[in-house]
């Protein structure tokens, strides 16, 4: 009986140790995390710039449907980027900050979807209000990750046309 | 209808006042956050930039007089010494234009060794702006200290180029710095670039920390009213506002590095 209890305790301890060891091995440093995320963001940024090319002049020339399709493609890229970044293991010391950052990215995604929908419905004033919110959330997102030194994963208004 | 008892009404008023003060507090906090502007960090160094056009409401199809306010600078995340800056470049948006035709100029020579009042008296007719400049000074074997100076901006010419000549004066310790920003065509979204090379003659001690400048001047030339800075808000008729890359500040560091940040702002069409 005593032997069985000891074996249970030993098994539990071993499991715990293994789990802790595995966790420690998976926990990346901030630098590792930045490198992994930058590798995700960089190609997506380039793709965003490609699809948004000319969107400003489309709006100027009131080619709203064409601008909406460009925003739709940019939204799909943004969603894909956030989806690819989410499962990347986060440095344990930065989980709160990164949680907040992902919160702002979620807001931005919602605003981009909204802009696309409003442009498709030809509601330009509503679209422009959502663009203002999108930019504001982007700036807030940037302020959260300032110490990380992101480049490609940072919000830059200039990428959107 | 039953009137609420006095104590209940007082309670409601107190609650409304509390709600209002909370709302004002939230607004103040939001504005304080905005006042910082946009920031960017590379390693230990943080660059910040903020700015605005005034008025915000502008014609869609023609330029109108505006003032441009810019504020920014460098800081380190851990409070250590700032690196030396060798060049400052500020990009201004394509829909804003700087007009100097008919505006008197002031030479750097007249501003050297001049106090704030002397600079004003010598070149008041060329005045195009004002502001503040803050630098950290590092002298060997001494703790660093900050110099906060008042800034005047004058219209001028440097080597054939139009220029904004900044005159910074601090009374304590007595310091005068004359910094010419050449006005050059910008690139990309920025139609105009203001570029200043910080002369090695300034020495290795002053470190550029923070600036704040407002450019604005109305003058008349050949019977017509003119503005030093003008801008439009070229949005299509079905939009009431537009967003644009408003400014970009870029600092070249001694040793070759560079750090910069850009800001986007909106304008409203009238």
How would you describe the overall organization of this protein?
The complex is a heterodimer of chains A (161) and B (270). Chain A is mostly helical and 161 residues long. Chain A has a single domain (28-159), classed as Up-down Bundle (Four Helix Bundle (Hemerythrin (Met), subunit A)). Helix content of chain A is 76%, strand content 0%. Chain A is built from 6 helices and no strands. Chain A is elongated and about 70 Å long. The termini of chain A are far apart. With 270 residues, chain B is of the alpha+beta class. Chain B folds into 2 domains: 7-36; 39-269. Chain B is built from 3 helices and 18 strands. Chain B has helices at residues 6-35, 108-111, 116-123, and strands at residues 38-42, 45-54, 57-58, 64-65, 67-76, 85-93, 96-98, 127-137, 145-158, 161-170, 175-185, 190-197, 206-215, 218-221, 224-227, 229-231, 241-253, 258-269. In chain B, the strands form 3 sheets. In chain B, strands 1-2-5-13-8-9-10-11-12-6-17-18-3 form a 13-stranded mixed sheet, with helices on one face. In chain B, strands 4-16-7 form a 3-stranded antiparallel sheet, with no helix packed on it. In chain B, strands 14-15 form a two-stranded antiparallel sheet. In chain B, a hairpin with a 4-residue loop joins strand 10 (161-170) and strand 11. Chain B is globular and about 60 Å long. Classes of the chains: A mainly alpha (161), B alpha+beta (270).
């Amino acid at each position: 009986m005593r032997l069985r209890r000891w074996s249970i305790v030993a098994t539990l301890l071993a499991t715990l140790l293994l789990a802790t060891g595995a966790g420690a091995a998976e926990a990346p440093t901030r630098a590792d995390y930045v490198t992994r995320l930058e590798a995700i963001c960089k190609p997506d940024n380039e793709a965003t710039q490609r699809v948004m090319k000319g969107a400003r002049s489309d709006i100027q020339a009131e080619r709203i449907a064409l601008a909406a399709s460009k925003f739709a493609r940019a939204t799909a890229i943004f969603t894909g980027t956030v989806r690819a970044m989410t499962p990347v293991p986060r440095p344990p010391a930065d989980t709160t900050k990164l949680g907040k950052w992902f919160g702002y990215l979620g807001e931005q995604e919602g605003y981009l979807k909204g802009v696309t929908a409003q442009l498709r419905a030809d509601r330009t004033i509503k679209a422009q209000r959502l663009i203002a919110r999108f930019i504001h959330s982007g700036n807030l997102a940037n302020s959260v990750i300032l110490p990380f030194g992101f480049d490609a994963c940072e919000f830059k208004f200039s990428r959107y046309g | 209808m039953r009137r609420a008892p006095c104590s209940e009404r007082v309670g409601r008023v107190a609650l409304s006042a509390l709600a209002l003060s909370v709302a004002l507090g939230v607004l103040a906090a939001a504005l304080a956050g905005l006042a910082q502007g946009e920031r960017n960090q590379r390693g230990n160094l943080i660059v910040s930039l903020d700015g605005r056009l005034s008025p915000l409401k502008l014609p869609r199809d023609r330029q109108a007089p505006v003032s441009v306010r810019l504020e920014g600078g460098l800081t380190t995340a851990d409070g250590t010494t700032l690196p030396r800056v060798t060049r400052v470049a500020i990009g201004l948006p394509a829909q804003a234009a700087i007009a100097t035709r008919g505006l008197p100029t002031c030479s750097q020579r007249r501003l050297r060794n001049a106090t704030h009042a002397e600079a004003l008296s010598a070149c008041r007719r060329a005045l195009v702006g004002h502001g503040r400049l803050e630098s950290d000074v590092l002298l060997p074997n001494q703790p660093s200290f900050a110099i906060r100076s008042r800034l005047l901006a004058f219209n001028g010419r440097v080597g054939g180029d139009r220029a904004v000549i900044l005159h910074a004066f601090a009374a304590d310790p007595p310091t005068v710095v004359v910094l010419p920003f050449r006005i050059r065509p910008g690139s990309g979204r920025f139609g105009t670039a203001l570029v200043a090379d910080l002369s090695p003659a300034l020495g290795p001690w002053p470190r550029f920390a923070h600036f704040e400048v407002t450019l604005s001047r109305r003058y008349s030339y050949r019977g017509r009213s003119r503005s030093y800075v003008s801008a439009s808000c070229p949005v299509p008729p079905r939009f009431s506002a537009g967003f644009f890359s408003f400014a970009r500040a870029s600092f070249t560091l001694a040793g070759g590095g560079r750090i910069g940040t850009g800001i986007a702002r909106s304008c409203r069409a009238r």
